[in-house]
Amino acid sequence: MIGGVAVAAGIAAVGVNAALGAGRASAPTASASPSATPGASAGTSASASAAPVETPTETPTPTATPGIDLSAHSNDDPASIWVVVNKLRTLNPVDYVPADLVYPDVRYVNRQPMRQATADALVPMFAAASSEAGLTLAVQSAYRSYDTQVSVYAGWVSSRGQAGADATSARPGHSEHQTGWAVDVVGSSGTCALEICWGDTPEGQWVGANAHRFGFLVRYKPDTTPITGYESEPYHLRYIGVELAQHLHDAGIPTLERLFGLPDAPDYAPGTVS
């Protein structure tokens, strides 16, 4: 999810597992917006001899995943590789901090840490982009603390108002970046960084076609806005592990919400703290 500072002119490589610093990110640079959610359907049944009986409202059901146990990891525990955080699902605790934040030895625009498993997958993906396609990728944004997200979101509210902010940035406690499982990537040229058009660049096309090989899901796609509430973010990658990412890719399952049978989340619930 967006919220990083503008892309720097120079991108430098840094060492692995350097001392942890506060996640930094702020000036508005890209977009994410909500859309209407399809309504849940409700039906009725009746017979010639009995009064109509209302049937329960349908609830989402998990997508069939042959060979994959969808109960293997929690969708609620913020430390879980399969945690689902969106506009209806708040991290608990809301100020959660991952225990194993590290800095992988890759190129950065903004030097921000991520979970160890995320880093272990990102390094070979960046290397493959270079060796297979001659492309240079860099980290624009990774882990952001709750307090940092408070500042990021406040900046968007100041510049666009709350409705505009909600169309662009996650409210504190609702950002995948806080889990340490998400990373925003850019190309070394800075072209279309944190913009929808990044998906049309050589780097964006390569990432879109290959991220699943390394355990990443392009979380916000052009056709998932009614489900996630965010516009396409081809640069926002969520680590979920190779097996699940490969399955989602092969089966054409667009989102974690669809996979796990969770409700669509295009808007925040009334009363959500901002």
Automatic annotation (TrEMBL):
Keywords: Signal. Residues 114-241 form the D-alanyl-D-alanine carboxypeptidase-like core domain. Residues 1-18 form the signal peptide. Residues 25-66 have a biased composition (Low complexity). Coiled coil: none annotated. GO terms for molecular function: peptidase activity. CDD domains: LD-carboxypeptidase (cd14852). Residues 25-72 are annotated as: Disordered. One of its GO terms (biological process) is proteolysis. This is D-alanyl-D-alanine carboxypeptidase-like core domain-containing protein. It comes from Rathayibacter festucae DSM 15932.
